[in-house]
Amino acid sequence: MRLNMLTDATRVLLSRINLFEGLPPEALDSLWAGSKVRQINQGGFVFQQGEAAQCVYILLSGRVRLVQHSAYGKDVTLATFVEGDLIGLVAALSEEIYPASAEVLSDSEILITPHELMWALMRQYSELPLRALMIIASRLHEAHERIRELSVERVQQRIARAIVRLAQKTGVKQPDGSLKLDIRLSRQDLAQMTGTTLETVSRTLTAWEKSEMVEAGRESLIILNPHHLMLIAEDLIEP
Amino acid sequence: MRLNMLTDATRVLLSRINLFEGLPPEALDSLWAGSKVRQINQGGFVFQQGEAAQCVYILLSGRVRLVQHSAYGKDVTLATFVEGDLIGLVAALSEEIYPASAEVLSDSEILITPHELMWALMRQYSELPLRALMIIASRLHEAHERIRELSVERVQQRIARAIVRLAQKTGVKQPDGSLKLDIRLSRQDLAQMTGTTLETVSRTLTAWEKSEMVEAGRESLIILNPHHLMLIAEDLIEP
DNA sequence: CGGCACGTTGAAGGGCTTCAAGCTCTGTGG
DNA sequence: CCACAGAGCTTGAAGCCCTTCAACGTGCCG
Question: Is the Cβ pair B147, A78 closer than 8 Å?
Fold first, then answer.
């Protein structure tokens, strides 16, 4: 019996991952055999900007964000990942080094697959590159959307959008009908996602709390009025 | 003899395109047989935002830009394409409609390939999806770079970067050593690329002309001091 | 319980937008 | 050929959104 045997539970998890959906069991077996699972806790890094890109990562559980460091400590959050998301594929394919860091937001389990194995699988199972292409294509679409937002929208509109987006990814319906974000989210984090400062985020959230649209705690956020938030995100009202 | 026969010259052109490099001749033949070439003049559109995405386009000659329309006429330029670039792949793969418009900047020849044919080719030639993946991956990387710029950089730095990027794509060395951009480029165009207004671009270029860094004409731009421009783009000097 | 990270709030000011008016170049048709 | 329309560009003035700096709360965890 091998140490890292592929259990049925994990097999289900893997087969549910977008990229591997519909793949024959033996493909999952060889993926599993050649990969390692690692636990990384909050604050750690899956990889860091500038490192050689040798592996592809699959987030089995937890939260990870892609951060790009700039001069003078001004970091930018490029994307947020949840269970099932693929991390580092772009770098492993087109770059030799990771152009950003992958920071763990809450304790995560990560499947680490060597770059060569992923390539081998891609060559062997022809539907794999097509699926990967569609995943990356949809990320490109998201990135274009953010470029548009940063170019033409005001700060509070961008903050509203960022929250709506996080709610779609990690939102958990509460008993009282409100929507809680299942992610540690400081003012600084939101600022890095929207290209603004933590002070501006704080002021904005305070204003929204006064109008009972959200409930903003320490690194937590509950949306009381999702509809109203969406209206602000779409610039359909002037509060 | 077929009307749209694949001439040797075009064959060379096609085989030089990133996506098709190293593909067997019969692949190019079937691509050509199932595609059409269309001439679109300056101001026309390859496709418009909101249309059903049924084809993939390859720019054989000319210049095309990807524009996203926003409310109140605020347009954003997401990308600029030159000869050999692939347009509309992302939309044809992941979306049902084009999320942006492809506007022709200077008279262009475009190869139009039905979406189904491209899929068929991708299934038949396994290296094709991998190549496409790498192309899209590098675009995603570029998009992330722009998100970072828009988030943390000042306007004049972004304008400098946009010009440097255009110079890499379309720059033509002049006899006197300067670098002329081979593209129609109004102040408004630059503004749409950098998320600012045409007035700010105008003021910035005027300042740069005074310090003899560029020569800005009506819809044209010559870079007199590329090195200095790069320093501004990288925020290494304070002019 | 004390340190430290997170968060709030105020005040000042600057970079950029917005509005407005006028200029310059280019192409076009009488 | 020239006048004229219109698109592109410049420049000024006003002001606002947002950043920046600074000081002070606040709550969490060792």
Answer: yes
Chain A residues within 8 A of B100 when measuring between CB atoms: 144
For residue B175, give its domain range. Answer: 151-233
pLDDT per position as a tens digit, A182-232: 999 999 999 999 999 999 999 999 999 999 999 999 999 999 999 999 999
Residue A114 lies in a domain: yes
Residue whose token pair is 């470029």: A147
Distance B206 CA to D7 C1' (A): 19
pLDDT digits 0-9 by tens, A91-119: 888 778 999 999 999 999 999 999 999 99
| Residues B85, B106 share a domain | yes
> Are residue B105 and residue B165 in the same domain, yes or no?
no
B123 Cβ under 8 Å from any chain A Cβ: yes
Long-range pairs for B227-235: beta carbons < 8 A, 24 or more residues apart: B229/B160, B229/B163, B229/B164, B230/B160, B230/B164, B232/B156, B232/B157, B232/B160, B233/B157, B233/B160, B233/B161, B233/B164, B235/A71, B235/B153, B235/B157
My answer on whether B112 and B156 are in the same domain is: no
Same domain, B83 and B134: yes
Q: What is the pLDDT of residues A4-54, one digit of tens each?
A: 667 777 788 888 888 998 889 899 999 999 999 999 999 999 999 999 999
Residue A131, domain CATH: 2.60.120.10
Residue in A closest to B72 by C-alpha: A152
- Domain co-membership, A26 together with A135: yes
| C-alpha to C-alpha distance for B220 and A231, rounded to whole angstroms | 41
Could you tell me if B198 lies within 8 Å of chain A, comparing CB atoms?
no
Question: Nearest 5°: phi and psi at B119?
Answer: -65, -45
**Are A66 and A122 found together in one domain?**
yes
Residue B146 maps to a domain: no
Taking the C-alpha atoms of residue A68 and residue A219, their distance in angstroms, rounded to an integer, is 21
- Number of structural domains in chain A: 2
